[in-house]
Amino acid sequence: MPAQTWNPAEYERNARFVSTLGRGVLELLSPQRGERILDLGCGDGALSAEIAAVGAVVVGIDSSEPMVDAARSRDLDARIGDAQALAFESEFDAVFSNAALHWMPNPDAVLAGVYRALKPGGRFVAEFGGHGNIAAIRVAQFAICQKHGGDPQTIAGKYYPTTEDYESRLRAHGFTVDSLQLIPRPTPLPTCMDGWLDTFGRAFLESIPEDSRTPAKQEIIDLLRPALCDSNGMWTADYLRLRVAAHRPAR
Description:
- With 251 residues, the protein is α/β, with parallel strands linked by helices.
- The protein has helices spanning 8-15, 17-20, 23-29, 46-53, 65-72, 107-117, 135-148, 153-156, 163-172, 192-200, 202-206, 210-228; strands at residues 36-40, 57-62, 77-80, 92-98, 118-129, 176-188, 236-247.
- It has a 7-stranded mixed sheet with strand order 3-2-1-4-5-7-6, sandwiched between helices.
- α4 (46-53) links the parallel β1 and β2.
- α1 runs antiparallel to α10 and α7 (135-148) runs antiparallel to α12 (210-228).
């Protein structure tokens, strides 16, 4: 299965809305001067830089070398790493993540690592795709995947849990859950569905034989146009976000 890859310039062009819309969960984090905070899936570091700007000490982790390089260009401590295999032990006052956890297919490994990384009393604040996220887009992708011989795991491999599922996992790993909500967030796409597929559907498209990729992408766009594109040509993705605040008990 082709791995999802990321291009910082393309991400800036097609997906800057991700960090812009992440400011709500950043407010929930409420970082404080002097705190040590781990940013899981930091990407190009846009939100990590905002956390650092208040005087917190930020460590960013991301699996994409180009995105880590972009984060380092902001003078951040960004490291290449797998959030499903964290090695930190009681180091952080908070662990933060925006729009990244749904890319990690082993949520229990993530939560076990987050719990270990937190100091007793430390908090975990995150937002990511929840149950029903991009449902229309996924249905169109599955239909075209079957037609053109793509790898369905590039679509099915995302983790979009219900609130009940994620709360159960949090509690099983020892967290106290402070808040958990599923938030509908219809999201305008600055470069239409074409740009969204180039950025977030790259692994899916690369799983399709090369001579079929362009027509396959156009067929997805045509399928989605009646549902997600308005009469003015504005595309809106059917996002649903799961926002969580939890903490490791003080003892």
